[in-house]
C-alpha cells in the first residue's frame, strides 16, 4: 500500500499526517507502529485527518506504540497550519475526541490554539482513587539518589503529572518516565513532566509522553505545566515553556481557557510504502 502523507513538527515534536478526508482506509496497530518507527519513517505521533461536515476536519491521534491519544497540542497546531494553507483561512476549527479545538494562524509558521479548560478533579484526570491532585506524594529520585516527593495531576485532553524540581537535568527521565507513566494511580497511564521554574513567566521542562517516550516538545505538557504552576502560585497566567529547541507561550484567560502559541515547521510531502 502506497500512502501520500505529510511530515511536520512543532519544536521538534514531529508528526506524520495522513489526509483521509477523501480516501478512507484502516491502519492496523502494527502499521501505525511501523510508520512511527524511526528506522522506517519515524515520528512521535501519527495524525489522521478525517472529513467533518460541521468543522474544518476531525483529527485522530496515535502514539508511537500504536495506542490512541485524546489530544495533541503541537499536532493540532501543525494540522491547523496545513489546512490554513489549503483553504486560505486564518481560523481553523477541528473536532477531537477531547473536544473542539480552535486555532488562529497569527503569521507565517506561528499558530495559536485554544486547548479548552483543564480538568483537575481526580475523577476527570482520571486517577484510580480520591487523592490530593495538587500533591500526589509520588517519590522520584535524582541521579544521586536524592528523593523528591510530589507530582501535580492535570488533564488537558490527556492525563499529565508534573514534578517541580530544582534541576531537571539531575533526573534520569528515561528511567523515571516509564515508571510514572505506568503508575497504578493512573488507569489510563500519563505523560510525565519535570519542570524547573526560572521566573514567574518562564519554566524549563523535559517531557516523557505516554506511549511515545522522550520527546523534544509536547504542547499539552506545556499547558498542563502552566496550569500546575498557577495552582501552586509559582508562575503567572502568561508563561513561556522552554523546550530543547525553543519555547511555547501559554496563556490562561479569565474563563480558564488555555491558549498555546508557538512555531510550526514547513510542510514536507512524503510517501509511505506499507
Secondary structure blueprint with pairings:
Blueprint: E1 2-10, E2 13-19, H1 29-36, E3 45-50, E4 57-63, E5 68-69, H2 73-87, E6 91-96, E7 99-107, E8 110-116, E9 138-141, E10 147-150, E11 152-155, E12 159-164, H3 173-181, E13 191-199, E14 202-209, E15 213-215, H4 219-231, E16 238-243, E17 246-252, E18 258-263, E19 268-273
Parallel strand pairs: 2-3, 4-6, 12-13, 14-16
Antiparallel strand pairs: 1-2, 1-19, 3-4, 4-5, 6-7, 7-8, 8-18, 9-10, 11-12, 13-14, 14-15, 16-17, 17-18
Description of the structure:
- This protein is α+β, with helices and mostly antiparallel strands and 274 residues long.
- It folds into 2 domains: 2-117 and 262-273, Diaminopimelate Epimerase, Chain A, domain 1 (Roll), CATH 3.10.310; 138-256, Diaminopimelate Epimerase, Chain A, domain 1.
- The protein contains 4 helices and 19 strands.
- The strands form 2 sheets. The chain has a 17-stranded mixed β-sheet that branches. A two-stranded antiparallel ribbon has the order 9-10.
- Strand 3 (45-50) and strand 4 form a beta hairpin.
- The chain is globular.
Labels describing this entry:
Diaminopimelate Epimerase, Chain A, domain 1, 2 domains, two-stranded antiparallel sheet, 4 helices, 17-stranded mixed beta sheet, 274 residues, alpha+beta
Poorly predicted spans: none
- Which term fits the overall shape? globular
CATH H-level superfamily of the largest domain: Diaminopimelate Epimerase, Chain A, domain 1
Please report the distance between the alpha carbons of the first and last residues.
5 Å
Structural class: alpha+beta
Strand share of the residues?
Answer: 35-45%
Domain count: 2
Fold-level CATH name of the largest domain: Diaminopimelate Epimerase, Chain A, domain 1
Can you identify the CATH class of the largest domain?
A: Alpha Beta
Average pLDDT for all residues? 97
Oligomer: single chain
**Rg from C-alpha positions?**
18 Å
Amino acid at each position: 500500500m502506497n500512502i501520500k502523507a505529510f511530515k511536520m513538527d512543532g519544536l521538534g515534536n514531529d508528526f506524520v499526517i495522513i489526509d483521509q478526508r477523501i480516501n478512507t482506509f484502516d491502519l492496523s496497530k502494527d502499521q501505525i507502529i511501523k510508520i512511527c518507527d524511526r528506522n522506517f519513517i519515524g515520528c512521535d505521533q501519527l495524525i489522521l485527518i478525517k472529513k467533518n461536515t460541521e468543522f474544518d476536519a476531525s483529527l485522530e491521534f496515535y502514539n508511537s506504540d500504536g495506542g490512541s491519544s485524546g489530544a495533541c497540542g503541537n499536532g493540532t497546531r501543525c494540522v491547523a497550519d496545513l489546512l490554513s494553507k489549503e483553504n486560505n483561512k486564518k481560523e481553523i476549527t477541528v473536532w477531537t475526541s477531547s473536544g473542539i479545538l480552535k486555532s488562529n494562524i497569527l503569521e507565517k509558521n506561528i499558530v495559536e490554539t485554544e486547548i479548552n479548560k483543564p480538568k483537575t478533579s481526580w475523577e476527570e484526570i482520571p486517577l484510580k482513587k480520591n487523592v490530593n491532585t495538587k500533591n500526589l506524594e509520588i517519590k522520584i529520585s535524582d541521579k544521586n539518589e536524592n528523593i523528591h516527593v510530589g507530582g501535580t495531576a492535570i488533564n488537558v485532553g490527556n492525563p499529565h503529572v508534573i514534578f517541580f524540581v530544582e534541576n531537571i537535568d539531575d533526573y534520569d527521565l528515561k528511567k523515571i518516565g516509564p515508571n510514572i507513566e505506568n503508575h497504578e494511580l493512573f488507569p489510563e497511564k500519563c505523560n510525565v513532566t519535570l519542570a524547573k521554574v526560572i521566573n514567574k513567566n518562564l519554566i524549563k521542562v523535559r517531557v516523557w509522553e505516554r506511549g511515545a517516550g522522550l520527546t523534544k516538545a509536547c504542547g499539552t505538557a506545556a499547558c498542563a505545566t502552566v496550569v500546575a504552576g498557577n495552582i501552586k502560585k509559582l508562575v503567572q497566567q502568561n508563561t513561556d515553556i522552554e523546550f530543547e529547541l525553543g519555547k511555547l507561550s501559554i496563556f490562561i484567560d479569565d474563563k480558564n481557557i488555555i491558549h498555546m502559541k508557538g512555531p510550526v515547521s514547513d510542510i514536507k510531502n512524503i510517501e509511505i510504502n506499507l
